[in-house]
Amino acid sequence: GAELILTSGGISQGAYEVVRELLEPLGAWVGSVAMQPGGPQATAVYRGVPVIGFPGNPVSAQLSFALFVAPTLRAVAGLPPARAERMPLAEPVRSIPGRRQYLRGRRTDDGRALPVGGPGSHLVAALAASDLLIVVPGAVEALDAGEPVDTVDL
Fold this sequence. Notes:
Helix content is 19%, strand content 35%. The mean pLDDT is 93. The protein has helices at residues 18-23, 58-76, 124-128; strands at 5-8, 29-32, 35-36, 40-46, 49-54, 84-88, 93-94, 100-107, 113-115, 132-136, 142-143, 148-153. The relative contact order is 0.17. The protein is of the alpha+beta class. The longest helix is centred in the middle third of the chain and has 19 residues, at 58-76. Strands 3, 6, 8, 9, 10 and 12 form a 6-stranded mixed β-sheet that branches. Strands 1-5-4-2 form a 4-stranded mixed β-sheet.
């Protein structure tokens, strides 16, 4: 009776990616999206049920869920979309060109977006201390404090 199957891990390019090995013969799309963290992704249908495969890293999986699945679940449940707004950066950031980066952040009392922790997808404590994502476009290598950025609530 499942309506949706979510998986985490087993979809990268490694030699023993068990979820990939199961889904690809079913016609799944397994690939990478130009974002960090959260590049590896998968979609498939198993016995008529949609399958979404997330990366195995905990921060990557959580951000992938927040960006790709939560908006649809919120809509189906009749909830409003997560708040998205533009606000100034509290401090400068650097980014990897060619990938949209989602930095964990916190809204300051004066309405700025403060990055929390680094960009690494293993920094679970930084995610726990965050209440929003700071979106750094793929073509951007650096942003100065005070520059406006798009954010989305977690």
